[in-house]
Automatic annotation (TrEMBL):
Keywords: Membrane, Transmembrane, Transmembrane helix. This is DUF1772 domain-containing protein. Pfam families: Anthrone_oxy (PF08592). The chain crosses the membrane at residues 12-30, 57-80, 87-109. It comes from Nocardioides marinquilinus.
């Protein structure tokens, strides 16, 4: 049994690191390119684009890494020991923090943006955007840091 777990250690930690890395790349891209680009457009374009992207992002590819990063890190606890274990714990805490931030902050903001309705029917696009943009951007940066931290910790655990 111990040998079987030892044989699974590297593949599980590698999968956890890859999933965390894909999450980090997603949030980094939004923080460094997508949101700064959208900051330059008019309110109608911003609200419409974000409404469409918030629907499109909920897909099997994204969800596999969104759910997979913390789950694989948790599974990593079953196979990690010695000097790798604290790094796996840190990676799990950071991966879980990314998911919790998304569920607690970003998704409700996305839902509020969707609830505003089609852009053709929103009376005050500037107010809808103002209620969404700065908070969403700030918390997305948090997700970029936590997911990048998870990647670093899980990658380091692999080398222990």
């Amino acid at each position: 049994m111990i040998e079987a777990l030892e044989n699974l250690r590297s593949p599980i930690l590698l999968a956890a690191a890859v999933a965390s890395g894909l999450q980090a790349g997603t949030y980094y891209t939004w923080a460094s390119g997508v949101m700064p680009g959208l900051a330059r457009v008019d309110d109608r374009t911003f609200v419409h684009a974000m409404q469409q992207m918030n629907v499109a992002i909920v897909n099997p590819v994204f969800m596999a890494t969104f759910i997979g990063a913390p789950l694989l890190a948790a599974l990593g606890l079953a196979v990690a020991d010695g000097p790798a274990r604290p790094w796996v714990i840190a990676g799990l805490v950071l991966a879980a923090s990314t998911a919790i931030t998304t569920i607690a902050v970003n998704v409700p903001l996305n839902d509020a943006l969707a609830a505003a309705g089609p852009v053709d029917r929103i009376a005050d696009l500037a107010a809808v955007r103002a209620d969404f943009e700065s908070t969403w951007v700030r918390w997305n940066v948090v997700r970029a840091f936590t997911s990048t931290g998870a990647l670093g910790c899980l990658g380091w655990a692999l080398s222990r």
